[in-house]
UniProtKB/TrEMBL annotation:
Source domain of life: Eukaryota
Key word Signal present: yes
Gene Ontology biological-process annotations: carbohydrate metabolic process; chitin catabolic process
Pfam families (UniProt xref): Glyco_hydro_18
Organism for this UniProt entry: Capsicum annuum (Capsicum pepper)
Gene3D superfamilies named among the record's database cross-references: Glycosidases, Phosphorylase Kinase, domain 1
SMART domains recorded: Glyco_18
rRNA processing in keyword set: no
Residues covered by the GH18 domain: 31-366
Name listed for the protein in its UniProt record: GH18 domain-containing protein
GO molecular function, one term: chitinase activity
Length: 366
């Protein structure tokens, strides 16, 4: 999964038909509009550029995990390199939008070092020390001014890890509730990222524990196809696909049928695209054969939301001058583009009835 910077925020819109978890105190007309924002030490993005008025929740990615080998204890930490940025993040985005809630995410799917540490946390050998992880996460969230915590680890690989995940969420919620009473402050939100379906091969997420303990679940309904894994240009986040289970309609139905409340599902939309190098420039429709990712300057074949808009402006399909120039990138690349952020959010409406896929309400393009 590609977390890049503010230009490729993941924008979440809730599938909402009634009140969410009581701690949120939202009515049935409210949308969750949340984005992940990742700080990159090598290429620090500008926090000032975030238009936080577009969101109800912003999620800072990612807190780090520190493993004490002498005591077998795991702690959530903010590194010295990130300390000032985290402090600035909350003050800046909340100054622009005082009603904004911020959430600290722990994990991240494309960070190998953190991923391996997460596996240690969830392993039987070190899981008994989870209380240090839980306590430190709450302490860090409070000390930096966050309103909640997010668990971003979507690849449990064994039934034991699934069982441990359920126990972790149970204990985490109890600790959050207790801390709120002790400090006499609003309870921290607890959210989690999940795959587009509740299954990981032959394993299933712990639905009952997630249902009881999470305020909502971020459904990562994207990355169905990537140029690094398939040569066919394919829809990255298809809403429907009659020929495959790799689509959002199928995944959301699966979550609901598994017992997870539809009102606590928050649908993930990618604000980035993928770039394929086409096998034949003349065959440039979705489904056309490619030879893999775009040029080497594209990380894993990804292109950010803003870059896509700029490219489409430069190389508009049907532009007479552009056709005469026949630029190399236009002739060889298949690029999926998006509307402006505000337009994209306005293109979705809540239908207060069962949707085509059998769940409701459904977000459909007008």
């Amino acid at each position: 999964m590609a977390f890049k910077d503010i230009a490729i925020l993941l924008f979440f819109i809730t599938i909402l038909q009634s009140q969410l978890h009581k701690s949120i105190a939202l009515d049935n007309q409210t949308w969750i509009k949340a984005g992940y924002w990742q700080y990159d030490t090598l290429n620090p993005p500008n926090i000032q550029s975030i238009n936080s008025t577009l969101y109800t929740h912003l999620i800072y990615g990612f807190a780090e995990l520190t493993f004490n080998t002498s005591t077998d204890q795991m702690f959530v930490t903010i590194s010295d390199d990130h300390d000032e940025q985290v402090k600035n993040f909350n003050s800046i985005v909340k100054r622009k939008n005082p009603s904004l809630k911020t959430i600290l995410s722990i994990g991240g799917t494309n960070q190998s070092s953190i991923s391996s540490t997460m596996y240690l946390l969830m392993s039987n050998a070190y899981f008994p020390g989870r209380k240090y992880f839980i306590e430190s996460s709450i302490t860090i969230a409070r000390s930096y001014g966050f309103d909640g915590l997010d668990f971003c680890w979507i690849w449990p690989s064994s039934s034991q890890e699934i069982s441990n995940l359920a126990t972790l969420l149970d204990d985490w919620r109890v600790a959050i509730d207790l801390e709120s009473k002790q400090v006499k402050k609003p309870r921290l939100l607890l959210t989690m990222a999940g795959k587009y379906t509740p299954w990981i091969e032959d394993l299933s997420f712990p639905i009952e524990s997630m249902r009881k303990n999470l305020d909502w679940l971020h459904v990562f309904a994207f990355d169905y196809y990537e140029p690094g894994t398939t040569n066919n240009t394919s829809p990255v986040a298809a809403l429907y696909d009659p020929n495959s289970d790799l689509n959002t309609d199928y995944g959301i139905n699966a979550w609901i049928k598994s017992g997870f409340p539809s009102q606590n599902l928050v649908l993930g939309l990618p604000f980035y695209g993928y770039v394929w190098t086409l096998l034949s420039p003349k065959n440039n429709q979705i489904g056309a054969m490619g030879t893999g990712p775009g040029p080497k300057d594209y990380s894993y074949g990804t292109e950010a939301f803003t870059s896509t808009n700029e490219r489409m402006e430069r190389n508009k399909i049907g532009n007479e001058n552009n056709e005469e120039k026949g630029s190399e990138e236009t002739r060889t690349l298949q690029i999926f583009s998006f509307d402006e952020m505000k337009e994209a959010t306005n293109n979705f409406a809540v239908e207060n009835e069962l949707g085509k896929g059998g769940y409701g309400p459904v977000y459909k393009v007008r």
